[in-house]
Structures are given as structure tokens and as C-alpha cells.
Specification:
The chain is 24% helix and 38% strand. The chain is an alpha+beta fold and 133 residues long. The chain has one domain. Strands 6-5-4-3-2-1-7 form a 7-stranded antiparallel sheet, covered by helices on one side. β5 and β6 form a beta hairpin.
Length: 133
């Protein structure tokens, strides 16, 4: 599946994008939030996140979609074919592998980012990190 198939523009017209650089970790986080507009206010339905290193050689793309009942589904990019549904444990393993590869490539990284999804939430609210528009 593609991003447009997961979040059709006709259904989710409201989008908010931002990107952050975490220079101490050689990491860029790009986030797009998708909203559905019920009659009175926008409702968050999902997000598309890209994590990549400074050079762009290492990257992972994750989509999370929240159902109206609050359940979350995860999709991860599988090369050129688009996105496939992944169980949370599988997605977590891929993110940990990305983090390990990042740590091996840049020896000066001495902080365990842990779950990159949580790290990206921190990036959205951290004023000390450089915001890229």
C-alpha cells in the first residue's frame, strides 16, 4: 500500500507536517499527521514518520493508524512496493535494528534512543532541538 492508499486526500484533507534534526544523534525525524474532519473539529487518525541518518543512507518509514475505537495499526515500508501491515513486536524489532545500525555507523552516539516512535514524540515537543521547516 502507498501513503495515498492509507490516507486518501478526499477522506483526510487535513495534514500537518514538520521535521526535526537531532544533530547529536545524526538523526532526522519527519512527521506528517493526518486528520479527519467531523462536523465540528479535526480528529487525529494517523501519522507517517520517517527516521533517517544525516547521510540518508539509513532510513526507516513507519505509518500508524488509529481506529475510531482507539486501536492502532502499524505499517512499515517494504522497499519499493509500499507499506505492509506489521505487528507491533515486528515493527519494534525493525526500529531497534535501525537504531543498532545508526549506533554502528556513528561511533559518537552513546545514548540509547530506545523506541524511535517515542523519540519522535519527544522531538515534537523539545525546544532544544533544531526545527526544520
Amino acid at each position: 500500500m502507498t501513503i495515498e492508499e492509507l490516507f486518501p486526500k478526499g477522506k483526510y484533507q487535513f495534514r500537518a507536517s514538520t521535521a526535526y534534526s537531532l544533530p547529536d544523534f545524526h538523526l532526522m525525524v519527519e512527521i506528517t499527521h493526518f486528520f479527519h474532519k467531523p462536523p465540528y473539529y479535526p480528529q487525529f487518525v494517523g501519522e507517517f514518520k520517517t527516521f533517517r541518518d544525516d547521510s540518508g543512507e539509513l532510513s526507516v518509514k513507519v505509518v500508524s493508524i488509529r481506529s475510531p475505537r482507539g486501536e492502532e495499526a502499524y505499517y512499515m515500508e517494504n522497499s519499493e512496493e509500499g507499506f505492509d501491515h506489521w505487528e507491533p513486536e515486528e515493527a519494534d524489532a525493525v526500529l531497534k535494528e535501525f537504531m543498532q545500525n545508526l549506533s554502528e555507523k556513528y561511533e559518537d552516539i552513546n545514548f540509547d534512543l530506545g523506541n524511535l516512535i517515542k523519540a519522535s514524540m519527544l522531538a515534537e515537543h523539545a525546544s532544544s532541538w533544531k526545527r526544520i521547516d
